[in-house]
Design a protein that fits this description.
Length: 549
C-alpha cells in the first residue's frame, strides 16, 4: 500500500507540474508574460534541470522580447544545457536565441541535432518548437518551418498547436489561403482556440475595409471562444484608435481587465491622448509611465509614442532623438513599417540625411505586407515633398509609386510623377513617365502637352526638334475638339513652338506665319503674335517681290 501511495503522490506531482506549465503556456497565448513567468519560474527554481520548465520560462522572455536584449534568455538556456546536454528541447531554445542573434547556420545545426537525437514517438513537440523558433524570429526560415511542422502533423495529426503554427508560417509567407485553412483546422480540433479565429480576422483585415463584416465576425468569434483572450481586445482598441476614440476606450477597458498591469498597459492609456491630438499630455503620460515602471524595463513603445507626439508638435529635433531611443530599446522584429517611414520623413528635414531617410522609407515599404499601406506611405511622402517644392525628391517617390501596384498608373499619379520630375529638372525620367501617360491615355491633350514641355527641357535650343512630334499631337487632338477655349493654355504654346521651329530651324516663313495666324484665331489680342504677323507679312511681300524680279 505504501508503494502505491508513493506512486500516486509522484503521479499527482507530475500532473501538477504539467498543469502549471500548461497554464503558463496559456498565459503566453494571452500575452500575459509576467503571469506566465510567475507560474513557470518556481518550477525552474525548484528543479533547474527540468528542461520543459526552463524552455518555457525562456519562451516567456523571448515572447516578451520588446527590449532587444537576448542576454538573459541566452544565459538561462546555456546554463540549463550545461546541466542537461542531452535535452533536445533546450537545444531548440538555444537555436532560437542564435536566430535572434542572426547566427542562422549555428541555429540550423542546433535544430538538426535536436531532431537526430530524438526518438520518433517524442519528435512532434521538438518539430513544433523548431517551427515556432523560425516563425517568431526575423532571421528564421519560414519554408524550413513549414517543412518541419508538416512532419509534426504526420506524427500528431490532431494537435491544434501544430496547425496554429502552420497558420502563422503561411501568414508570414503571405499565403492567406493556406494560413486560413490551418487556422480552421486548429479550430476543428479545439473550438476554444480563440487565437485561430483572431488570426483569421487579421488576415481578412489586410484585404481592406470591404472585408470589415468578415474580419469583425472572426474577432467576435475569438471573444466568444475565450472571453479572456486579451490580444483581441488590444487589437480592437488599436483598430478603433483612429476611428472612434470612445469605442477604443471600451476595448481598452476590456483589455485592462484581462491582462497584466505593466508599462505596456500604461502606454495604451497614454496613446489615447495622442489619438485625441493632446500631444503634450501624451508626452507627459508617457514620461510618467516610464518613471513608474520600477524594476520593469519600460515598454519601448513609450519612447516611440513620445517621438510621434514631438513630430506632431513639429519639434523635429526631439522627434528624431526619441525615435533613435525607441529603435535602440525595441526588439527590431517589432518595429513596424510606419515607424521606419515616419523616422525617414523626419530625417528628410535634416541636411545631408536624404540617403539615410530613403533607406528607412524603403525598409518600411519592403516589410509592409499590405499593399494599400505601401501606397499610402509613398503617396503621403511624395505629396509632402511636392508641397514643400522639393520637386526632385517628390518625383523620385511619385515614380516609385507607379511600380508598387498595376492599378497605380492613374492619370493623377502619372501626372504628379512626370510633372514633379519635370519641375526637378529630371527630364529623362519625366519623359519616360509621360510616354506611359500617352500610351494609356492617347487622346488626352495634357499628356502630350507635358511630353512636349519635357522634350523642350531635353532640347532647350530646339536644334534637335525633340518636342515637335509632341506639339504635332497636341495640335492634332485640339483640331478635333469642338470647344477649344478651355484648352488655350495648352494649344497656343503648340502654335508658338511651330512658329519658332519653322522660322528659326527651317527658314520657312510661310508655315511660321500660318501657325502665328492660328494663335490669333484663339487670342486676337496676343501682342507677340500681332508683332510677328506684321514682321512675317513684310518678309513674305519682300520674297514675293524678289521672286518677280
Amino acid at each position: 500500500m505504501k508503494r502505491i501511495g508513493v506512486f500516486t503522490v509522484l503521479v499527482f506531482m507530475a500532473t501538477n507540474l504539467f498543469a502549471q506549465i500548461e497554464e503558463g503556456k496559456k498565459m503566453l497565448e494571452y500575452e500575459r508574460f509576467q503571469t506566465a513567468a510567475k507560474l513557470i519560474k518556481p518550477l525552474v527554481d525548484k528543479d533547474p534541470k527540468d528542461a520543459d520548465a526552463v524552455y518555457w520560462l525562456g519562451q516567456t522572455m523571448i515572447q516578451n522580447f520588446e527590449n532587444g536584449d537576448t542576454a538573459a534568455v541566452k544565459s538561462l538556456y546555456r546554463s540549463a544545457l550545461e546541466a542537461n546536454p542531452k535535452s533536445a528541447l533546450l537545444l531548440v531554445g538555444m537555436g532560437e536565441v542564435e536566430l535572434m542573434e542572426g547566427k542562422k547556420a549555428d541555429a540550423r545545426n542546433r535544430f538538426e541535432t535536436a531532431i537526430n537525437m530524438t526518438k520518433k514517438k517524442h519528435l512532434a513537440p521538438i518539430l513544433l518548437a523548431i517551427g515556432r523558433a523560425n516563425i517568431d524570429t526575423r532571421a528564421g526560415d519560414l519554408h524550413y518551418a513549414v517543412e518541419k511542422l508538416n512532419q509534426a502533423v504526420e506524427l500528431d495529426y490532431s494537435n491544434p498547436e501544430i496547425y496554429m503554427a502552420l497558420g502563422d508560417a503561411y501568414r508570414k509567407l503571405i499565403d492567406g489561403g493556406n494560413a486560413v485553412t490551418n487556422y480552421q483546422t486548429a479550430l476543428t480540433f479545439d473550438p476554444s482556440a480563440a487565437r485561430a479565429a483572431f488570426m483569421m480576422g487579421r488576415i481578412y483585415e489586410t484585404q481592406g475595409i470591404s472585408q470589415e463584416p468578415l474580419y469583425m465576425r472572426f474577432y467576435n468569434d475569438a471573444i466568444s471562444a475565450d472571453p479572456k483572450f486579451a490580444p483581441v481586445y488590444y487589437w480592437l482598441y488599436m483598430y478603433y484608435y483612429k476611428r472612434d476614440v470612445n469605442k477604443a476606450r471600451e476595448y481598452l477597458d476590456l483589455y485592462v481587465k484581462n491582462t497584466d498591469v505593466n508599462s505596456k498597459l500604461c502606454y495604451a492609456e497614454a496613446s489615447l491622448f495622442y489619438v485625441s491630438k493632446m500631444y503634450d499630455e501624451a508626452i507627459q503620460k508617457a514620461d510618467a509611465c516610464i518613471a513608474n515602471s520600477g524594476d520593469e524595463i519600460p515598454y519601448p513603445n513609450l519612447y516611440g509614442l513620445k517621438a510621434y507626439s514631438y513630430d506632431k508638435l513639429n519639434n523635429k529635433d526631439k522627434a528624431k532623438e526619441l525615435f533613435e531611443e525607441f529603435f535602440k530599446r525595441v526588439n527590431p522584429d517589432l518595429i513596424g513599417p510606419n515607424d521606419y517611414a515616419t523616422y525617414g520623413r523626419i530625417l528628410l528635414e535634416f541636411p545631408g540625411q536624404n540617403a539615410l531617410a530613403e533607406e528607412y522609407i524603403n525598409k518600411a515599404i519592403d516589410i509592409d505586407t499590405v499593399k494599400s499601406n505601401k501606397i499610402a506611405t509613398v503617396t503621403e511622402l511624395a505629396q509632402d515633398l511636392y508641397q514643400k517644392k522639393e520637386y526632385a525628391q517628390a518625383g523620385k517617390w511619385y515614380t516609385k509609386l507607379l511600380y508598387i501596384d498595376d492599378n497605380a498608373l492613374t492619370k493623377t499619379n502619372l501626372y504628379f510623377a512626370g510633372y514633379s520630375n519635370y519641375l526637378g529638372d529630371n527630364y529623362l525620367t519625366a519623359d519616360s513617365v509621360f510616354k506611359i501617360y500617352q500610351e494609356k491615355y492617347p487622346d488626352d491633350l495634357l499628356g502630350w502637352f507635358l511630353g512636349a514641355r519635357t522634350n523642350e527641357g531635353l532640347d532647350p535650343e530646339g536644334e534637335e526638334g525633340r518636342a515637335k512630334p509632341f506639339w504635332d499631337k497636341v495640335i492634332e487632338i485640339s483640331d478635333t475638339m469642338e470647344n477649344r477655349e478651355g484648352s488655350k493654355a495648352m494649344i497656343i504654346p503648340a502654335y508658338r513652338y511651330m512658329v519658332a521651329y519653322y522660322y528659326k530651324n527651317k527658314d520657312d516663313v510661310e508655315n511660321a506665319n500660318l501657325y502665328n495666324n492660328r494663335i490669333l484665331e484663339l487670342a486676337p489680342d496676343d501682342a507677340n503674335a500681332l508683332s510677328n504677323k506684321e514682321g512675317f507679312e513684310i518678309m513674305l511681300k519682300q520674297r514675293e517681290k524678289n521672286q518677280k524680279k
